[in-house]
Amino acid sequence: MKKIITNNFWAKVVTLVFAVATWFYVFDLMNSDPYLHRRESPEKMLSRFNFSLKEVPIKPVFYGKSPRGYKVIFDDVKVEPEKMTIFGPKEALDQVDELRTDRIDLREYTSSVQLRLGLSSDVKYIDLDNKVVDVFLPVESTK
Length: 143
Fold this sequence. Notes:
With 143 residues, this protein is of the alpha+beta class. Helix content is 26%, strand content 36%.
């Protein structure tokens, strides 16, 4: 029995010290403030934030110029849906006046087209009801 205890004695002592130190470290972590929020119910945690819904218009974003002999009839551009409901903290929603579509390069179109585009916003922490919209882009010949 003495041989079992004295064989690699210092390795066993060091291992025991590390085990006790680890136990105290984990015990302290579990009882410190950063872990108290894990004991809160989801309802209580969410009640600290002022979440809200807001309906905002969707604006298509254009760039480039139509090819020679063609033009886009901007008054007849249709976005479906025209408005979208967004969800998030009220402070974030107050910064959002509109959602924008992916950019539409006008140089590519010589006839009317229906596009399926994604949406974007500069504001983080908002959740979109749907992340895509349909845009009807009317193009006519000027020849």
